[in-house]
Amino acid sequence: MSELLAREPAGIRVEGVDLSYGATRVLKDVNLEIRPGEFFAFLGPSGCGKTTLLRLIAGFNAAQRGRVLVGGKDVSALPPWKRDVGMVFQSYALWPHMTVRRNVAFGLEERRLPRAEIATRVEAALRLVGLDGMGDRRPAQLSGGQQQRVALARTVAVRPQVLLLDEPLSNLDARLRVQVRRELRDLQQSLRLTTVFVTHDQEEANTVCDRIAVMNEGAVQQVGTPMELYDHPANLFVAGFLGTANIVPGTVLREGGAAAFEVAGGTRIPLPPGLAVPEGARLMFRPQDVSLLPPGSDPAGRRLIEGEVAHREFLGASMRYGVRVGGAEVLVDVPHTGGEGHLQVGGRAALALDATRVKLLAG
Amino acid sequence: MSDTPAGTLGVAAPASPGMRRFLPSRPGEAVAFALVALFLLAFLVVPVLTVVTVAFQDRATGGFTLAHFGDFLSNDLFTTSFLNSLYVSLMSVVVASLIALPLAYFTTRFEFRGAILVQTLGVLPLIMPPFAGAVAMGLLFGRSGTVNLLLGDLFDINIPFMEGLNGVIFVQSVHYFPFILLNLVASLKNIDRAMEESAQNLGAHGFRLFRRIVLPLAMPGYVAGASLVFIKVFDDLATPLLLNVREMLAPQAYLRITSVGLEDPIGYVISVVLILFSVLSLWVSSLALRGKDYATVQRGGGGLARRRMSRGQAVAAYAVIFLILALVLAPHLGLLLLSLATVWSFAPLPDGYTIAHYARVFAESSQYITNTLIYAGLAGLIDVVLGTTIALLVLRGRIAGARWLDYLAMSALAVPGLVLGIGYLRTFFGVTLPDGRSLASFWGIIVLALAVRRLPYALRACTAALQQVSASLEEAAENLGARRLRVIRRIVLPLMAGGLAAGFITSFATAAVELSATLMLVQSSGDAPLAYGLYVFMQSPAGRGAGAALGIIAVVIVGVSTLLSHLVAERGGGRKSP
């Protein structure tokens, strides 16, 4: 293991990067700071530019503007083979004409290391990913999960300054995915290796990463820890992409000192004092920030909004109701504890909204 | 519906041996099986076995002997011929590779507008038989040909492109390089881009990257193409004969049989050697491809990363491409000039132009053209009928041995045309037709030889066409009350139509310019097809113009059919079953 420990963990800086393919702008003024030793994710829907950004760091794309620094050194002008940036490809890209051992040794051979050192580092890398004894197999003889471990071993064997993972879990089945993401986290921690992880799955990003950059349409929307992003999304896209969000259109009204949000159809929701009101804002809250009460009940301190149950979905741990309020539809999660009576579709319901949890967000 | 248990069972039933005995028998299937087996036995297995037997048979006692092989090895002429054949085939592979490699590299590696041009280059030579251009190549590249006359004037040098074996190597590589090019481009395109990028990411670049990653991954495709070129050249009879190169195996076998006689064992010994090398190179090719399906394209993959060329690189690339284009077009151009020339010798270009050669061909020798259309048409028809029957028996039938019909039909790939011709002569010489003539001298035997030789290609086309027809479509028709033969006629054949037409045209086009078996089997020029007529004309300087005119007609026939098959294949693409 010690053979594979990263030298000094290196950070990555992306400064003012613009990248276009012809007329299509794929990255728009991207600025990022990834700290040394951090597990960082690029999260976004397909086509948001996250893989392009990762490939830019590895040197497979060229930006029209801006620069990339790895470990404080500008690598923008360097070709991929001089960057010392390890990348694990989505398809693993194991060479079928070489054995597992030859695959892992490749980068070390390219670095002209002494033969003895190559042998020890290959064995250490295979041991690290739990594939010792598999060195003589061909990639085609391995399962998908094992192939991915080989790809990982091949990359960490050269002790890169940083590790880039392009959708590493996308080719694995659901159960394996949970196991592998934990192992990735453990590996990253034990090697103290700065790691960038590209994914479109918010759960993956939330569970393994220290910080996440949420991307959409070529631009970084927000950077933060998973919890910051979930609790304090900067805009409607981030709110909707991380978890389920109720996004309600309407207008902000001011009555004396207090502000309220009027939903199309006339229902008013009081706003907590001091809430920032951006231009063209919509009301955002999570399904679990609302509770659902039978009509007529009146808990103290909470304003009730009347609505009609439009549909419901049983999610196991909770029942998710869609309640029509005026012109909008609000999702409400009610914890399911078994044997409880539930509201029927078409029935009336009262929503109790925790006003301290609502946000006003612009698109 | 298909995911219900009943539906799954219905689809799987015909294939599962356990179910077989519960299904009603189909007598028609057994009859079809027997007829196809009989045909292959009579016109492929027996003739080839006869050739092999004669090679090992003592003429006096009829017992087993290796004496003929001893004679072959102790005769300098034959050992030289053998070594020459080997040398010419290997050198043709080398030269064809030198032509194909840069073309494949440019088109797959760079953003390159000339890619279309190169793809056209890839099929152009294939629409002309190599022997058709051989004489024209002599006029362009020979000692006193156009190029050497110009080189002599300008630099006072003379390059022996066409001297002896060089000529065969030159003509064959210019003709056969597309087999390497097409295979190489296909395998380079199939390499996942990430294969190359991950190597760069780990520190490899430039030539090391090419040698350690790109080349090994492209190797199976290259070997497949190269072994095809090797065997085509090794077996070819017409090109060396037309270039007047006799010290090679195929010409020697032909000359022994035609001049010494059918009894002379050396022709049979050579045939066995030819078969041996055919099998060997097919084996090498399958070895190269086995378990090495490097088609690794996945999401985000798709060929090597394309680089933009610098101005200097682009100039160099275009220079190479145009040089090769000129080479590839040379036989076509030379043939066209020759067919229109009054006199063309010791001059860079013909002295004058005329259409008299075409007039002569149509007036005196139009039977060559009609014979070709009839023979190739019949051969194509036989191939499609046999191919469809075998495909149906293998994919839909219940006879366990049907697979062997497929293997047997495919084994024709390893039988050189010359060998089949000799086998037919020997086997059918004693068989007399009702009118008292020998079956071996009946024109129909040429059709059968052509059909057997092209059957492997037609069979693959028919099998592919049938594989696209979902078995559930047939079961639906059976479920609605249609009997087996009606299902085939009303459902299967209409859905296969596009593939069958493509198979027919491929057989037709390649049969139209076959010469190896034909040379052995043609008994009178009245029964001869176009390729034979071309060969006869080209024997004398006076006939060259007419021969070239026939060659151009052959190119037109093959070119038009190739175009047709592309059109049919494209139209058929819209009718795949869901």
Automatic annotation (TrEMBL), chain A:
Domain ABC transporter residues, every copy: 12-242
SMART domains: AAA (SM00382)
Record-level Gene Ontology MF annotations: ATP binding
Pfam family, any one: ABC_tran
Keywords: ATP-binding, Nucleotide-binding, Transport
InterPro entries: AAA+_ATPase, ABC_SmlMolc_Importer, ABC_transporter-like_ATP-bd, ABC_transporter-like_CS, Mo/tungstate-bd_C_term_dom, NA-bd_OB-fold, P-loop_NTPase, Transp-assoc_OB_typ2
PANTHER family (alphabetical): SPERMIDINE/PUTRESCINE IMPORT ATP-BINDING PROTEIN POTA, SPERMIDINE_PUTRESCINE IMPORT ATP-BINDING PROTEIN POTA
Protein name: ABC transporter ATP-binding protein
Species annotation: Roseomonas populi
Lineage: Bacteria, Pseudomonadati, Pseudomonadota, Alphaproteobacteria, Acetobacterales
Automatic annotation (TrEMBL), chain B:
Transmembrane segments annotated in the record for this chain: 30-56, 86-106, 118-141, 169-188, 209-231, 266-289, 315-344, 373-395, 407-426, 438-455, 491-513, 546-569
Key word Aminoacyl-tRNA synthetase present: no
UniProt key word Transmembrane: yes
Lineage: Bacteria, Pseudomonadati, Pseudomonadota, Alphaproteobacteria, Acetobacterales
Keywords linked to the UniProt accession: Cell inner membrane, Cell membrane, Membrane, Transmembrane, Transmembrane helix, Transport
One Pfam family here: BPD_transp_1
Membrane topology, from the record: Multi-pass membrane protein
Protein family membership: Belongs to the binding-protein-dependent transport system permease family.
Organism: Roseomonas populi
Domain ABC transmembrane type-1: 82-281, 369-565
Compartments (UniProt record): Cell inner membrane; Cell membrane
Gene3D superfamilies according to UniProt: MetI-like
Name of the featured protein: Iron ABC transporter permease
